[in-house]
TrEMBL record:
Protein's name according to its UniProt entry: Response regulator
Record-linked SMART domains: REC
PANTHER family for the chain: RESPONSE REGULATORY DOMAIN-CONTAINING PROTEIN, STRESS RESPONSE REGULATOR PROTEIN 1
Entry-annotated residues carrying 4-aspartylphosphate: 193
Pfam families per the UniProt record, alphabetical: Response_reg (PF00072)
Length: 277
């Protein structure tokens, strides 16, 4: 199967129909729209739960666990967001699909370690939701390397990326990163800190670019510095993107997705050209 997302995602590979997805939505209109669109685009049949009791039954009495849940914030029987807390407690990865959204709502949602959220505010909302579903179910294709001399920073990024279903490796130094790249040629994205004791982010990027082009490996630099010139220097060294800490969660995920989308398109185009030759 193949899938083109609203924001530029492209997936081509095995069918996703084997994944069990629970949809917690009391609106007949939205549950019908989501069910139809996921079937059309991804060949996925969803299990619709119209209230909190239905949701609990579907999660706890399934023959195999749900790969993902899509949930409104408020359901009948769970008018104060209890459904989201329940799904997280049951270790079910969850995408929030909601029409109620304010700054306080965003903070509450993100505090629950959800996968993503999609707002019901445009004609593209259901397609954006389908793309978010497809990303989560297929992100395991991507191997991401985190390079940072801070154990805390490595742990935070690892947790965040695993929440999105990426495979991850981590290195505490530039030298260790170079060794991991030799051992794992499937690494497609590296996120590296700038300030490291042995090889800084600039030098690490230069060394990597001597052997790995941007069609093989995307590189995102990160830093806590307020020096605005770091981004220019990093891009000049061969990096593809740059972010300043602390990250905004949504921006971080979008930057990661955009770089991996670009890599996928380049590699797909290259494979087509090889077949034609």
């Amino acid at each position: 199967m193949s899938f083109f997302g609203v924001s530029g995602m492209y997936y081509s590979g095995e069918s996703l129909q084997q994944h069990r997805i629970v949809l917690a939505e009391d609106s007949n209109l939205f549950s019908a729209m989501v069910s139809k669109r996921l079937k059309e685009l991804l060949d996925i049949d969803v299990i619709v739960c119209r209230d909190y009791e239905d949701l609990q039954f579907s999660v706890e009495n399934a023959s195999f666990p749900a790969a993902l849940a899509i949930s409104n914030i408020n359901l009948p029987g769970a008018e104060n967001g209890e459904a989201l807390s329940y799904l997280i407690d049951m270790s079910v990865p969850t995408i929030v699909f909601t029409g109620t959204f304010q700054e306080s709502t965003r903070e509450t949602i993100l505090s629950k370690d959800i996968v993503d959220y999609v707002i019901k505010d445009s004609v593209f909302a259901v397609d954006m939701l389908a793309e978010s579903v497809c990303r989560f179910l297929t992100n395991h294709r991507h191997h991401v390397l985190i390079v940072d001399d801070s154990p805390t920073a490595r742990a935070l990024l690892t947790t965040q990326l695993k929440r999105y279903n990426f495979r991850t490796s981590s290195a505490e130094s530039g030298a260790a990163a170079l060794e991991l790249l030799k051992k794992h040629p499937d690494i497609g994205l590296m996120i590296t800190d700038y300030n490291m004791p042995d090889i800084d982010g600039f030098e690490l990027t230069r060394r990597i670019r001597a052997a790995h082009g941007p069609h093989q490996l995307r590189i995102i630099g990160v830093s806590s510095s307020d020096n605005r010139l770091l981004s220019a220097r990093f891009l000049k060294a061969g990096g593809n993107d740059f972010m300043l800490r602390p990250f905004v969660n949504e921006e971080f995920y979008c930057r990661v997705n955009q770089n991996l989308d670009t890599l996928t398109k380049i590699q797909t185009l290259g494979a087509k050209n090889v077949r034609k030759a």
